[in-house]
Write a structure and sequence with these properties.
The complex is a heterodimer.
Chain A: E1 3-16, E2 19-32, E3 36-40, H1 47-54, E4 62-67, E5 70-71, E6 79-83, H2 94-105, H3 111-124, H4 140-152, E7 158-162, H5 170-186, E8 190-194, H6 198-204, E9 207-211, E10 218-223, H7 238-255
Parallel strand pairs in A: 3-8, 3-9, 6-7, 7-8
Antiparallel strand pairs in A: 1-2, 1-4, 4-5, 9-10
Helix pairs in contact in A: 2-3, 2-4
Chain B: H1 6-30, H2 40-49, H3 51-85, H4 87-102, H5 105-115, H6 120-145, H7 149-156, H8 162-199, H9 205-215, H10 219-248
Helix pairs in contact in B: 2-10, 3-4, 3-6, 3-8, 3-9, 4-6, 5-6, 5-8, 6-8, 7-8, 8-9, 8-10, 9-10
Classes of the chains: A alpha/beta, B mainly alpha.
Chain lengths: ~260, ~260
């Protein structure tokens, strides 16, 4: 008990014209309730497939995905998702965009209550005063903040982030990392973050999972026991630098550039 | 806050006046007879002489065009939805639609006229519909099938039904393409209506007025009908533009 997300021996292949294309093989990940798991791996290794499996949008050929002690058989209302592309709806204001999941999950909730909740979150990520703007009037970083608000507005217990900071410039990205830490203090969600950025994984993750190249399997798991919002400076401590070096090595192994024995 | 933008009103009007003056001058300069080219000064009296017919026939042409266009919107959207949401239906229907669209509608008019003998209003509306639904169907189909999967996933991951995804995301997201197609369709429907009125004349519509003018060699009247058709076309087009502003104004990113 205690693990909110449990991925057990998941194997999955896509059907293509030239036969099955295996993307995941015997993948195992356990994420305790309230913790933050960062998943890194070479590009094209099936990380996005993993997010769709957890969200219940796809089902594995073999193995099981458990959320909250329940086998995932269909999409659940207690999941939130955010992607690299913020996919905000252009015809809605920022506030109405954030409310969207509530319209599905809690259709009976009074409009005022929905708006209150959205206001509260937007204030939390520093978007106060932008509620009535259109997405096209906001910068990329602000749009991604709004997208984050939308992904947690319905208080999901599972938050799935598929490279949400990937397309942002370095400064904006660091701002959003800090916002992420601040949100975790206020909102109780268990997170799986897909990323290509090792610094991001170390700064945000309680646990970093390195996936091997395709078909992806759990190659390496690193625990980073450091509770609470972390100062950005933590990335420059000898401990973090050492962790980054280890992860970098693991990625090179996953890419097949370095033999495992050389570690 | 409705401030009239004088440039938007004045410039097109000025352009129209310049065109009319140039036209008048050209006819005078070349000394063309009216059967070759009528001048605006010949056309205006022709219009005044048959003014009551212009209003009556203009209305007939207008309502039948709008009815045909209305059907095109309903069925075009429906076909577009079916094609956009199902790969198989898309593969099945696309070649049929393209083939049907390729048939010159002038050839369909006599066929339809024989199929529904005497049903003039129905025939006219039917042709206006047949000629104009294609761009609507294609644009809706493309709009729906090119929806990025993430848009679907944000709602699907919450257990939303396909209909909810369609209603809340896919449909509004397709509106700009839809209105683009509607601007093409409105002109096509108009052409369809007039085609029937001219090819299968039944004493109604501006097309019929054109036909009678031709038979009576009233050349200024023929030109007057053409001008009336142009005016009606502009009127319909700008109604669509106004609807677009209301329903898809968000897609307009005018530099401000």
């Amino acid at each position: 008990m205690g693990n909110l997300i449990e991925i057990k021996g998941v194997t999955h292949a896509y059907k293509t014209k030239s036969g099955p294309l295996p993307v995941l093989e015997n993948l195992n990940i356990s994420i305790p309730e309230g913790s933050f798991c960062a998943v890194v791996g070479p590009s094209g290794c099936g990380k996005s497939t993993l997010t769709r499996l957890i969200a219940g949008l796809m089902f594995p050929d073999q193995g099981e995905v458990w959320l909250h002690g329940e086998l995932v058989k269909s999409p659940r209302k207690t999941v939130g998702m955010a992607f690299q592309n913020p996919v905000l709806l252009e015809w809605r204001t920022i506030l109405q965009n954030v409310i969207l999941p509530l319209e599905i999950v809690a259709p009976g909730m009074p409009k005022r209550k929905k708006e209150e909740r959205a206001h509260e979150l937007l204030a939390l990520v520093g978007l106060e005063g932008f509620e009535n703007k259109r997405p096209s009037e906001l910068s990329g970083g602000m749009r991604q903040r709004a997208s984050l608000c939308r992904s947690i507005v319905h208080k999901p217990d599972v938050l799935i982030l598929d490279e949400p900071f990937g397309a942002l410039d370095a400064f904006t990205r660091e701002d959003l990392w800090q916002t992420m830490h601040e949100l975790r203090v206020k909102e109780p969600f268990t997170t799986l973050l897909i990323t290509h950025d090792l610094r991001e994984s170390v700064y945000l993750g309680d646990q970093v999972v390195v996936l091997s190249g395709r078909p992806a399997t759990t190659q390496y798991v690193m625990d980073i026991p450091m509770p609470g919002p972390r100062p950005l400076e933590m990335l420059y401590t000898p401990d973090a630098v050492e962790k980054l070096a280890v992860l970098r090595k693991q990625i090179q192994i996953a890419q097949g550039r370095v033999q495992a024995e050389a570690v | 806050m409705m401030r009239i933008n004088w440039q938007k009103v004045f410039v097109p009007l000025a352009a129209m006046v310049v065109l009319l003056l140039a036209w008048e001058w050209l006819v005078w300069f070349k000394g063309w007879p009216t059967f070759k080219m009528a001048a605006p000064s010949d056309i205006w009296p022709a219009f005044l002489r048959f003014q009551h017919l212009f209003w009556e026939y203009g209305w007939q042409t207008l309502w039948r065009t709008v009815a045909g266009l209305g059907l095109a919107v309903v069925f075009g959207t429906l076909i577009g939805m079916i094609m956009g949401l199902s790969r198989m239906m898309n593969d099945a229907l696309y070649p049929l639609l393209v083939g049907f669209n390729a048939i010159p509608k002038a050839t369909v008019v006599p066929v339809v006229a024989l199929m529904f003998i005497g049903q003039h209003d129905f025939n006219t509306v039917l042709i206006a519909f047949l000629i104009s639904f294609f761009p609507i169907a294609v644009s809706v189909a493309i709009g729906l099938s090119t929806l990025e999967p993430e848009y679907r996933d944000i709602l699907r991951s919450l257990g939303a039904s396909r209909f909810t995804v369609f209603w809340k995301i896919a449909l509004p997201k397709t509106l700009p393409e839809f209105f683009g197609a509607l601007k093409v369709a409105v002109t096509l429907a108009f052409i369809g209506t007039n085609l029937v009125e001219i090819i299968a004349p039944h004493g109604r519509g501006l097309g019929h007025l054109f036909q009678s003018a031709q038979i009576n060699s009233d050349f200024p009247l023929m030109f007057a009908v053409l001008i009336a058709l142009a005016a009606l076309g502009i009127f319909l087009y700008y109604i669509v533009v106004a609807l677009e502003r209301i329903f898809a104004g968000w897609a307009d990113r005018a530099p401000s």
